[in-house]
Design goal:
Length: about 190
């Protein structure tokens, strides 16, 4: 079988061969030219989600903030293994759980995923007062850049950069100095 992407039915056929003890894991690795970890992952996804788990992901799974927090707390309690936790909460992978643990331990919020909603990528011109209002709003709402970008119709990157400028230099750092001319006494002879 070629190593190119397999569809869900092809993956299912391989998983069922292994599940029905028609072939062992090592033999499947040799026969299909796949990594053992790939086969283990497919088996896990099939057990959790059925054939849908074997489909090529066209979108990210959504998890509530409560589910993320409970999964992390279960992990920190040490009573369940990572595999048991991802099975219990139907989490896509150990990597996903590890990311939540890292965020939690870094004292960052475990927010619910917004379902793939894309942020505005093209910014718009703003006044100094607008930038200040957006920054203060964002800081008051847990630095939720996406929410601020959506509400004020600016790009995520604009909000992010304004927050960084504000944190580094206060409100005056948000002033746009482009296009301003220097006072004549500040110009060098080369500028004339």
């Amino acid at each position: 079988m070629p190593k190119n992407k397999l569809n869900a039915l092809e993956k299912l056929a391989i998983v069922q061969e292994i599940e029905n003890s028609q072939i062992g894991l090592k033999a499947a690795v040799r026969k299909f030219g796949l990594n053992k970890s790939t086969l283990v992952k497919w088996r896990h996804l099939y057990r959790l989600y059925g054939i849908e788990g074997l489909e090529v992901g066209s979108h990210n799974r959504s998890y509530s903030a409560d589910l993320k927090l409970q999964a992390v707390k279960d992990y920190l309690a040490g009573e369940l293994s990572q595999y048991q936790i991802i099975d219990k909460y139907k989490i896509a992978s150990r990597t996903q759980l590890a990311d939540w643990i890292k965020k939690y331990n870094g004292h960052r919020n475990l927010r619910a995923y917004n379902g793939g909603k894309t942020a505005m990528t093209k910014g718009r011109s703003t006044t100094w007062q607008e930038r200040l209002d957006i920054v203060l709003h964002c800081l008051a709402n847990g630095q939720d850049y996406n929410q601020a970008a959506d509400q004020f119709k600016v790009s995520y990157q604009q909000v992010y950069s304004w927050i960084k400028k504000y944190e580094a230099g206060g409100p005056e750092a948000l002033r746009d100095g482009r296009g301003r001319t220097k006072a004549p006494e500040k110009l060098t002879e080369e500028a004339y």
